[in-house]
């Protein structure tokens, strides 16, 4: 089992869209997603953002878009982003081996995408407190299934501090400020 390494990691944000965030009871999911996006921007971690049918569900949260101006966007209709034409190629082009995944809904799009990423040989880390479902039981069951499939379950703070690696990281104070 490995820690998240900033040189090998890619951030994959699944469908953190306006209408989907509003339907969640847990309002901290969107906040945590924004914090990871901000940290990724500060640390220069490549990021991919998917949007499930944005015409109907709205676009990605504005704070995430502002934090990641260089992110690659991928519109999808399949629940698993991997099943969309061009998505796997997009990930392969980055050369990254670790995927930090989170978003909405955990038991549908996050779960199916993570399963397919594991099948493709990626080391996948699902961020529990930056992922949400309308029903907490669905989220918890999805995370349990992912763990059984070889995905590591992590939290916002685990992601941030593993990416930093040390308090001597020149961006330490700026990233640490995101959780204070």
Topology readout:
Layout: E1 9-14, H1 18-22, H2 28-43, E2 47-52, H3 54-57, H4 62-67, E3 72-76, H5 87-94, E4 98-103, H6 106-119, E5 123-127, H7 136-148, E6 152-154, H8 156-164, H9 172-176
Parallel strand pairs: 1-2, 1-4, 2-3, 4-5, 5-6
Helix pairs in contact: 2-8, 6-7
Describe the model.
44% of the residues lie in helices and 17% in strands. It is of the alpha/beta class and 180 residues long. It has one domain: 3-Layer(aba) Sandwich (Rossmann fold). The protein has a 6-stranded parallel β-sheet, sandwiched between helices. Helix 6 links the parallel strand 4 (98-103) and strand 5 (123-127). The radius of gyration is 15 Å and the shape is globular.
Helix and strand run = EHHEHHEHEHEHEHH
CATH class, named Alpha Beta
**Superfamily (CATH H level) name:** Isochorismatase-like
Whole-angstrom Rg: 15 Å
Q: What does the largest sheet look like?
A: 6 strands, parallel
Q: State the total count of DSSP E strands.
A: 6
- Class by alpha and beta content: alpha/beta
> Helix segment count?
9
How many distinct domains? 1
Which bin fits the share of residues in helices? 40-55%
Strand content: 15-25%
Global morphology: globular
What name does CATH use for the topology? Rossmann fold
């Amino acid at each position: 089992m490995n820690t998240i390494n900033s040189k090998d990691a890619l951030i994959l944000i699944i469908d953190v869209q306006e209408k989907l965030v509003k339907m969640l009871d847990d309002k901290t999911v969107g906040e945590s997603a924004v914090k990871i996006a901000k940290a990724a921007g500060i640390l220069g971690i490549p990021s991919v953002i998917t949007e499930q049918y944005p015409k109907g569900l709205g676009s990605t949260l504005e704070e995430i878009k502002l934090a990641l101006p260089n992110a690659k966007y991928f519109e999808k209709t399949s629940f698993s982003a991997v099943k969309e034409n061009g998505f796997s190629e997009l990930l392969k082009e980055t050369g990254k081996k670790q995927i930090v995944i989170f978003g909405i809904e955990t038991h549908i799009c996050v779960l199916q995408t993570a399963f397919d990423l594991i099948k493709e040989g990626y080391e996948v880390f699902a961020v529990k407190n930056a992922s949400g479902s309308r029903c907490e039981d669905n989220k918890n069951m999805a995370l349990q299934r992912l763990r059984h499939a070889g995905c590591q379950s992590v939290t916002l703070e685990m992601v941030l501090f593993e990416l930093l690696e040390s308090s001597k990281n020149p961006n330490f104070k700026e990233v640490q400020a995101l959780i204070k």
